[in-house]
Amino acid sequence: MNSATPNSRSASIATSSEDQNTAAKLTASMFNSLKGRPIQGRVYQDKEPPQFIAIFQPMVVFKGGLSSGYKSYIAEKGLDDETYSPDTNSVVRILGTAVHNNKAMQLDPPGVPVKYQKEGSESASFWLGLGGKDDYTSNKVSLDTFRDPHLFGFSLCKGKFQIEEVYNFDQDDLLPEDILILDTRAEVIVWIGQAVDPKEKKNALEYGQKYLELAESLDGLSPHVPLYKVSEGNEPCFFTVYFSWESSKTLVPGNSFQKKITLLFGAGHAAGHGNQGGGNTQRASAMAALNSAFSGPGDGGKGPTKGPGGGGGSQRRAAVAALSGVIADVETPDSPEKPEEVPEENPEGPIEPSEPIPEDHDSEPKVEIEEDENGILSSQSTFTYEQVRVKSEDPAPGIDLKRREAYLSVEEFESKLGMTKENFYKLPKWKQDQTKKKVDLF
């Protein structure tokens, strides 16, 4: 769901503010009526992302407009109506190499006759207009410019917009109580947790715009990059690609505390945790306090007030990380309050004891991976690419499914991944996963 806006450089054909406001209201209305499931975005002309261009095949951008707002705008400004007509000749520029970037745009007709010259056979007058002939490269320029993505939390302090970067981020940093901003340089995505206050959810795009203005002044980010609004549980592929994403985590309901309990001990334990008759009263009080700290205003919790952008995110992350150690004590067999089990009588006679299972029993032992001081992974046991790939018909037994590449020989590693191990493990984690996906190793 996108509202497209012409680039401000084309002032003569700019959409009227009336049309822009109408488009924004319509997309917001559709977003709310569908309970936040779509991805709401704002796209500027000439800055269309691949996923937008791929919708229109072919995508052709004509001059002018047909809306009443545009007609009123040019009449008010005394401008010529340049709206495209099939009865007139037009100059169209076509760019693109694939379905995701194939685009055509109508241009102003030239005021002089057009002459065509092939590369390598240019006339002297051609080079004279460019300041003289010189050596230049004829290699194709790659349009894929990569930059490490950055994830930010933010806060509003006395009306001032302040950001705080989340370093070495992963999916677990996306807490339901937070609004976070992902900057990939090519686009800015505002992620909204389910436990965020409804008033803050409505302002998500405004926070994204504030970030764009700040990034433009500090980092030179274009103010016209696509801006998206994404809600928790509805993340698109162009967002999840920057994380080691596990879809199962998005299906767990509740706040950060409840999600952690569910992932550690299952839904039944999370639901019944506060209703246990026995157990340590002191521990139960502590758990209740933690739960209230993670509850948002809408959950009836009386925890500390926190900013919309996750100002207290680091404290919550630290508390969540410590839960596994705290809660594990509940299940210890040494608990003095655990009632003694009484064996039931079996009318059919005593049950024969089963054979004991050795402690080191493992139906499929893991093949160990070693990591050197430079973070390079390797294994003494190597397997072929056909054995370690995801869709293998003869999979290697006992390998770490998240580190399939570590079992390849040096030759196959460089052949399949197109780089040495040293260069591969220098890449950020999201880029490693993206590279492995291309060769069926992730």
UniProtKB/TrEMBL annotation:
Keywords: Actin capping
SMART domains assigned to the protein according to its UniProt record, in alphabetical order: GEL, VHP
Domain named HP: residues: 377-442
Keyword Lipid metabolism tagged: no
Gly residues bias spans: 297-314
Molecular function GO labels: actin filament binding
Gene3D superfamilies: Severin, Villin headpiece domain
Region entry Disordered, spans: 1-20, 291-382
Biased composition (Basic and acidic residues): 358-368
Pfam families, per the entry: Gelsolin (PF00626), VHP (PF02209)
Regions annotated as coiled coil: none
Single biological process term from Gene Ontology: actin filament capping
UniProt cross-references to PANTHER family, sorted A to Z: VILLIN, VILLIN HEADPIECE, VILLIN_GELSOLIN, ADF-H_GELSOLIN-LIKE DOMAIN PROTEIN-RELATED
Name recorded for this polypeptide: HP domain-containing protein
